[in-house]
Amino acid sequence: MMNKSYISNPIGKLFLIAILFIASISAGSAQDFKKVMDLNERWKFSIGDREEWADPEYDDSNWEWVDVPSAWENQGFHGYNGYAWYRKTFDKRQLPENQALYLQLGNIDDVDEVFFNGKRIGKTGNFPPKYATAYKSYRRYNVPAELIKETNTIAVRVYDDVGEGGIIHGDVSLLVDREAIPVDIDLSGTWKFKLGAYAHENLNNIDNWDDIVVPGNWENQGYKDYDGYACYALEFELEEEFVRERMVLILGKIDDIDQVYLNGVLVGQSGEFNPKTVKERSSSWQQIRNYYLPINLLKSEGKNTILVRVYDATQGGGIYTGSVGLISQDHYIKHWKSRRNRY
After folding, report:
1. Where in the chain is CATH 2.60.120.260?
2. What is the pLDDT of residues 163-210, one digit of tens each?
3. How many Cβ atoms are within 10 Å of 337's Cβ, its own excluded?
4. 3-state secondary structure of 27
5. What is the Cα–Cα distance from 46 to 156, expressed in whole angstroms?
6. What are the pLDDT digits (tens) for 234-258?
7. Cα dist. 204→189, 190, 199, 298, 322 in Å?
8. By three-state DSSP, how is residue 314 classified?
9. How confident is the model at residue 30 (pLDDT cuts 50, 70, 90)?
10. Band of residue 343 on the pLDDT scale cut at 50, 70, 90
11. Which residues form the Beta-galactosidase jelly roll domain (predicted)?
């Protein structure tokens, strides 16, 4: 396995960058990304760590300016290891409307947590005291549509242990996924999460479950090298107009297999929910999950609860990419007709 001392060698570093670039292309091949804003430019920067720096209203006028991407050691902070923050503000008018937005940050050394207008949209690696580096991971985070405002602020919290630190390599930009399903209700963002085959049996304790960002591999969010069972849960409210519609639940792509309940009713699964199914359906992790919901199952009074059980056999696990939300059947049909006409 490569270690960070390897990349101090210039040849080794170039080799690693080439590998990461190829891996990032492979990872995104199932999606049709188009760059809509270049963020390879100067960002506001400060060493240190304060919670309020995620707030879009925070006054960062006295912060330093640094180039992104580039290690902070190359920009006057040689030898610094620890916490630092980056901030960037941009105007919504520069973005296309009604398309799934992603923030691409390339490679960050070592750990990051990303906020969009004050809301966390992604995390890769583990911060101290349970530190785990993720310097080899290519960062690309979904931006929930409801977070986008006229003026938007990106805040990136970074922790570096040794060697280079910061947003160091890659194309830093905003992308749209032209293949994304345009859901009517976006349910991406923070969900509740718990490991274990029987986590779903105790929903009364859901507030004590961990938080996790959906979509995103669970390995990048504190569960490194975990293979096995886990459970996602989300409570949400819904307006009456959607209750009367025939709706489809979209859960992006899940690695490897899943079993999904809505308000206590089984609404779908990717084959029989046991480890043998992974061998029988080896491409399941590449399939978009779309589950048609029975009429009258959703409710407008009180909260609706989605429960997603997942079994991961190896490597990446969880609800890892794609649109997550609810779309009316009529809009879903329209989406697939438009795709058909595109090819």
Report:
1. 6-177, 185-342
2. 999 999 999 999 998 888 999 999 998 999 999 998 888 788 898 999
3. 10
4. helix
5. 11
6. 999 999 989 988 999 999 999 999 9
7. 21, 18, 11, 20, 29
8. coil
9. low
10. low
11. 49-158
In order of 90, 101, 106, 147, the CA distances from 173 in angstroms are 12, 11, 9, 17
CATH of 185-342, one of 2.60.120.260, 3.10.310.10, 3.50.50.60, 3.30.750.24: 2.60.120.260
Concatenate the DSSP letters of all residues of 214-228 into one string. Answer: ESS-GGGGT-TT--E
Mean pLDDT of the 10-21 span: 42
How far apart are alpha carbons 175 and 178 in whole angstroms? 9
Q: Which residues pair with 195 in a beta bridge?
A: 230
- Residues 200, 233: Cα–Cα separation, whole Å: 9
The whole-angstrom separation of Cα 271 and Cα 4 is 41
The fold adopted by the segment(s) 6-177 is Jelly Rolls (2.60.120)
The span from the CA of 282 to the CA of 257, in Å, is 10
**Sequence-ordered alpha helix ranges (H) in the chain:** 10-27, 240-243, 276-280, 329-342
In this structure, is the dihedral angle defined by the CA atoms of residues 68, 74, 75 and 80, taken in order, positive or negative?
positive
**Cα-Cα-Cα-Cα dihedral of 171, 173, 177, 182, to 10°?**
160
Q: What are φ and ψ of residue 50, in 5° steps?
A: -140, 135
Type of residue at 24: S
- Find, among 111, 220, 108, the residue nearest to 169 by Cα: 108
What tens digit of pLDDT does each residue of 298-330 get? 999 999 999 999 999 998 899 999 999 999 999
Least confident of 77-86, 127-136, 148-157: 127-136
Rounded percentage of the chain residues whose pLDDT exceeds 70: 91
